[in-house]
Amino acid sequence: MPKVLLVEDNEMNRDMLSRRLTRRGFEVIVAVDGQQGVESATRELPDIILMDMNLPVLDGWEASRLLKASEATRSIPLVALTAHAMADDRARAMEAGCDDYDTKPVDLPRLLAKLDRLLANKPERVRNEPLSAEALGELRHKLKTSFNQILGYAEILLEDVENSGLQDIAPALGDLHRNARGLLERIQKALGNDGGVSLEKLEALATEVRPEVEQLCEVCGSLTIVLSGKGATAALADAERIASATRQLLSVLRQMCRSSAPEPDEAVSGVEIVASDRESSPAENGAGRLLIVEDDAANRNLLRRRLARFGYAVEVAEDGPAALEKISQDRYDLVLLDQMMPGMSGLDLLKLLRGTYSASELPVIMVTALDQSQKIVEALDQGANDYVAKPVDMPVVMARIQAQLARSKADRHTKLSDPLTGLSNRLLLSARLAEAIAWQPGLGGTRLAVLLLDLDGFKVVNDSFGHGTGDRLLMEVAERLKSSIAKCDLTSRATIARIGGDEFVILVERLDNADQPEVVAQTVLESLAQPILLHGLSVTISASIGVVLGADEGASPEHLLRDADLAMYHAKELGKNRWQMFDPSLRERVQTRMATAIELRHAVERNELLAVYQPMIHLQTRTILGFEVLLRWQHPERGLLLPAEFISVAEETGLIVPLGEWIITQACRQLRIWQNQFPSSPPLGMNVNLSVKQLRDPNLLAHIQRTLAETGIPPESLKLELTESSVISEIESAKDVLGKIQAMRVGLKLDDFGTGYSSLSYLRTLHFDSLKIDRSFVERLASDRQSRAIVETIISLADTLRMNVDAEGIENEPQLGELIKLGCATGQGFLFSKPVEAHAAEKLLEASFAGKKTSGEHIWDTLPATIGQERD
Fold it and tell me: CA 872 to CA 869: how far, in whole Å?
């Protein structure tokens, strides 16, 4: 019964054709997208493939190219199915390697005739026919490579154990070396140069030597266990390499003898591996360098061992920051990234990676236990190449890794033009850049310029009108870029390329003068500013442009594009619809942020964090009601760092979660001490800033409850502050968590009120019990009538809603007087105290409880130097 693989995403078409083919005597297996099609074909090795060309995840054209590029599936007949009756579809099908082509709706008799013809012409392997010289040579190479690795590592390890007091292992290692060498000689003799080796003889040879190879595997496994127990790290690494090479040898034998028994699964406590087809083709030795990012040690180590068995060089990282550190130091061909991790989630790390590496430069496969399609879509939207679900099905993982690596390799050999716009693509641009760098003369000569532009608001157009409209917009932008270059009347060569979704690059070589890039950039901005008609609607688009002038010594195309990208993002930060020249300080800023992320990970364990406290004051009596705790980082090299220098990095990387846990714990413990020293009614309070990222942390509520129980402070004396703008951005997801916090009787304060989207509707539903007036209104309170009106409105609103209101940034007596007149009861600011360490805050409390007014005049001069003079 011929086996047909049907790759079709339309459920009705798939089911109908599957039933009709089954009735005609075919065994039908199905796949719903191009990626699944590649995996199923690699695993099932069907007799023929029917491939729809319009598929999600990986389209049929690309899937066909991958299948025809793979030795395992190259000879399987492949028929392209398309709903388009366009003249060039047949040519495209042939170009992709398809053996035939048919249109939808499917005419079954016509399709069956094609299948019969293709199956009749499919070459059959004769089992007793000698292998081709090419196939035999490839087999000899695979076997010899595995053996040479075993022998080479065994010799290194034997020398190491003899020199490190592990002589008891040497005899077993010597036996392993001798047995492996003897086995190699036997196989080499059986595969001699007489040209008479057939499939039949090959399977007989594999059956004969397999028990000895399995024994080698057992010896290697025992060796790694012994060395692991002795703590011999270097020797253990060599032993694991021997074990990997031996397992690789076993895989080659399994290919030679398809009927041999499958290798038993490894048993690892708490980890489930779905065993389906154990005949997945191993990767060639050195096929790729992989990084596994997984917080569960059992999953991480099991996956590492299984992939190493297939010849990959595998490294692991236990969390996002560790992965970031590794990627910043080494090159990897692919990352397997767990989606759900504490601190920096997989999505957080993916966003950072996509800021530096494209999907083809560093493929990322998400590994997730989630069954929510929305989470998978979110990962793909953020730039993930693919995903696999837990429990891990190893054949699926292997197929997807191989497909992504093959696709990444194929990307380097694709055509040199962008299929949508007709502009140059990234590959051609890189070649032109390399050529321009090589031709760039020394000082005084002509130079090159790189302009990288990203469309502002393109996502809004795509989301509002659909991808088809977005594509038409990109095509129009391409035409305007061409016309802009023509208007500039350049005498030097200019290359326009599309390198990403809405990213374009203009390369100008051998400039006549250094002002030309500015002229080009301004001309492009003016051209894009003209309205574009889409579906009868007038759409206006703008762009942010980064410009790099010249190339430093030793620069590469990637360096120039990276620098232009940095300048482009700086242009966006400055307001968009503008161009910005690259400055080396931008590169230093990015490097500093990456270094900060890596170092911040260790700040808690190294005791480098510091809590400082700014008093909350009753404005009329000037007595202390409590404190706001603020964070500082005592960096060992850069000195004292204020939040502005590291909090945004902590937010981006997810490290804000452990930092937030630390500051909550620290603040509550300190508050307990002060409440015991200075009893009052109500007790002293403590305000702690909370990030929206912490609201997403599943451990937040438990940590707050645990800290309250540990310290014994009344829940009402703890208030958590969130900024207005951050809460609004996550309003739906925040409601539930904020409600549960309020149910603990912990206070909730809305910080920076008045600067965002002030609305009665969300104030009533988000459980806040107090507001904090932003300092921008307070500082203009005595001089600006509008600011005074806003503050008066906020205080009136809070009173109506029975909410408390605080003011921040009080710096002088006129501001204080106005706030008291308007009915504001509490506040904080430099007029009373800057943020101080705990021992200085204690002196402020002593003065306050002794009846002295808290102000800079009375107490400030008697305190030690303060921590961080800038405003938080």
Answer: 9
